[in-house]
Amino acid sequence: MTTTEPMLERALYGGVNAAVLTPMGPDLAPDVPLMASHCRWLLENGCDGLGILGTTGEATSFSVAERIAVMEGLVAAGIPAEKLMPGTGCAALTDSVELTKAAKRLGCPGVLMLPPFYYKNPSDDGLFAWFSEVINRVGGGVKVYLYHFPQQSAVPFSLELIGRLLAAFPGVIKGVKDSSGDYGNMKAMIDAFAAQGFEVYSGSDEFLSRILHDGGAGSITAAANVNCAAAAAVVRAFRAGDRAAEEAAQAVLTATRRIATSVPLIAGLREIVARRTGNPAWRRIRPPNLPLAAEKVGPFLAAFDATGIGGLAHAA
What we know:
Blueprint: H1 7-10, E1 15-19, H2 32-44, E2 49-51, H3 64-76, H4 93-106, E3 110-113, H5 124-138, E4 143-148, H6 150-153, H7 159-168, E5 173-178, H8 183-193, E6 199-202, H9 208-213, E7 218-221, H10 224-240, H11 243-260, H12 265-277, H13 294-305
Parallel strand pairs: 1-2, 1-7, 3-4, 4-5, 5-6, 6-7
Helix pairs in contact: 2-3, 3-4, 4-5, 5-7, 10-11
InterPro entries: DapA-like (IPR002220)
Keywords: Lyase
Pfam families: DHDPS (PF00701)
């Protein structure tokens, strides 16, 4: 591969990645067999990769031991480790190291790492020291993707910090998931760092077509749990140079995203998956998150269906 190829083709996780939901048993422990079944469905229906144990996967509601058990259980169930991008960023440095080492041991190519999020307004020097310590303790062998989600973490990544990390850890700091919704920020990262092989992924479905054309790597999104067929159609059309088909698929993708975010996102996605699978266990969710209110379920599902996603859906 050459640097003249689109980033989509050069990136480790190029294309469509789902920020995977974590199903739970009656005791609210992760249901790994059910999660593995969902992961297989996602890979069969348009996903190129799987971002597990992130925001949508409610990772911060699980212990380190539970998160490692999910990683190990999925790989043992036959989900290819090379398709997994586990979330390993924690407030505690040593927890982040332990989770990242587990992902490395299992053969995951990369991890998605939140910044340490409890202490607010840390300096770039402090964040650089934190990431340096984690990377040095892990000892290489796994790529680090930065998780820029300032609305949730309240700790953003500045362009200056990303540049410092890239210079200090070439080949280790590999990319970013930007869930800020600020496309200007995504484009600024592409312009500044794509030439160094830095992969920029949108956390917002509505930007998939745009980011591919601008030199980004694709998307890592919550709604891909239910709209991955539409996202995959965008990528196929982009590769084929069929702009009309790409715009049509992107319109469906954007519509599904807007409906998904019209209610509490994780709860709404769980309702769609519960209906698709016929398994009400998907409605289980760990507090403080709650299931979607019963009176909202019918209108929400009807609005989702009205987006036209059914015309792009693969067979389940």
